[in-house]
Design a protein that fits this description.
137 residues; mainly alpha; 0% strand
Length: 137
């Protein structure tokens, strides 16, 4: 992980600490976000066998093998950016996966103001990525 990635992750985690309670031994925010946003396609176990997997044109990847296919290192920033979807440049057509950054932003609304909303969106994505990291095999 580069220094910039580490600083970004630490800043996001600091924001997460401000907006969500500390949960010992379990990432309930992340597991709930996974259940709501990811399980329909990726399955509750993250292996790509969700109820919608068979109707998609591109099979959802097995999320439990992200570290394994990345030389044993969990690709934290890449997973974060894939879930967020707002910053990536999509030069070759539409994204295969929904852009959850936009979805989470709409769900949160503007009650926290533009900066607060962004902080809450990033905190939810961090919790989700942290959860996905825990299901690695």
């Amino acid at each position: 992980m580069s220094a910039r990635d580490l600083i970004t992750r630490l800043g996001i985690l600091a924001g997460l600490c401000l907006v969500t309670p500390v949960v010992a031994q379990e990432n309930s925010v992340g597991s709930e976000a996974f259940r709501v946003a990811c399980a329909a396609c990726h399955g509750m176990d993250g292996r790509g066998g969700g109820e919608f997997a068979d109707v998609l044109t591109v099979r959802p990847p097995d999320l439990t093998k992200l570290s394994q296919t990345n030389d044993g290192v969990f690709p934290y920033l890449r997973v974060f950016q894939t879930i967020d979807g707002r910053a990536s440049i999509r030069a070759h057509g539409t994204p295969v996966m929904p852009i959850w950054g936009d979805t989470f932003s709409r769900e949160i609304g503007q009650a926290a103001g533009p900066f607060g909303t962004e902080l809450l969106v990033r905190a939810r994505i961090v919790a989700l990525v942290d959860y996905i990291e825990t299901i690695q095999q």
